[in-house]
Every structure is written in C-alpha cells, then in structure tokens.
Structure prediction request, 108 residues.
Amino acid sequence: MPAPSNGSHPWIVVQHTATEGPGLLAGVMAEAGADVRVVRLDLGDLLPAPSEVTGVVVMGGPMGVHDGAQYPWLTTEQRWLTTAVDAGLPVLGVCLGAQLLAAALEHR
Prediction:
C-alpha cells in the first residue's frame, strides 16, 4: 500500500489513455490516505517535478514502449521516470508502465 502523502505532495498516477485509469488502485490509495493526482499524458498534461511528488504509479496503454515517434510524450516520460527513481521516489509500473520503467532504467 502506498504511504500516505505528507499533505503537500500527491501520488501521481500517469495515465496514457481514457480506458487505462487507476481503477481499483484509486480506492486502495484513498484508503491508505494518499492524495492522488491523475496526469493524463494523452491529453497534454505535464509531469510535475519529482520533488513535488510522493510516489508514482504508471498505468498501461495500447502503445508500445518504443512508439515514441507516434507518441512523443513516451520519450519525455522515460526521462522523467529516470529522474523520479534517482530522486528516491517509489514507482510502480503496470503493463506499459513497467515497460517504460524498465526502458528508463536500462539507460541510466
């Protein structure tokens, strides 16, 4: 279960499509006292600075980890994930999110 937010820094759920949201994780995180903010990369939302985040959950999507030409935000997201991990943030990747996390860490 995620650690509760410290009140000023939310957990970020990175969402790639309308159909790949936090689902049951949202309820679990709320029960744990986490302040959760969904970031919709497919709608142009920007990722916050890792220093403004308590933890990260990266959801799935139909695209692949190497589809940066079609989805340019995937490349930005991989760099951001490297920075988030280097900052010591807990990161959970689900499906595509796990692929992005692995690719981000492969080149660090």
